[in-house]
Amino acid sequence: MRILTWAIRLALFILLLAFAAKNTDPVTLRFFFDSAWQAPLVTLLLAFFAAGALLGLTAAVALLLRQRRELQRLRREAGLEPAQDGRGQGRGDAAAPVPPSPAEG
Questions:
Q1: Residue pLDDT, tens place only, 16-55
Q2: Do residues 39 and 29 make contact, with C-beta atoms less than 8 angstroms apart?
Q3: In this structure, are residues 29 and 36 in contact, taking their beta carbons and an 8 Å threshold?
């Protein structure tokens, strides 16, 4: 299985290397106010791909952190987690969950 994984990685690397070698022509990216940036096409493609991946990761991390905060708040409200003060320490006044008592027969 490892050999297959490395073979796929090598084939993908060679494919991307050939793509980069074919797209070295200089292109001009024009911005507002008559400013422009001239660079090889593959450089611009890589830069915009990296910027998009970074933006996507930032959005995913923001969503993950928001969900974790919501989960902590819900656990705190349900009494499953001790309340936190500003320093990240429990205040000690939160009630611990009580296990159910066995049914009396």
A1: 888 888 878 888 888 888 888 888 888 888 888 899 999 9
A2: yes
A3: yes
> Smallest Cα–Cα separation from 81: which of 70, 67, 95, 68?
95
Cα dist. 40→45, 61, 84 in Å?
9, 32, 53
Q: Which residues contact 79 (CB under 8 A, 6 or more apart)?
A: 94, 95, 96, 97
Integer Cα distance of 80 and 82 in angstroms: 7
Is residue 38 within 8 A of residue 27, CB to CB? The reply is yes
Give me the amino acid identity at 83.
A
Chain centre to alpha carbon of residue 73? 22
pTM reported for the whole predicted model? 0.54
Structure-block tokens of residue 35: 């400013």
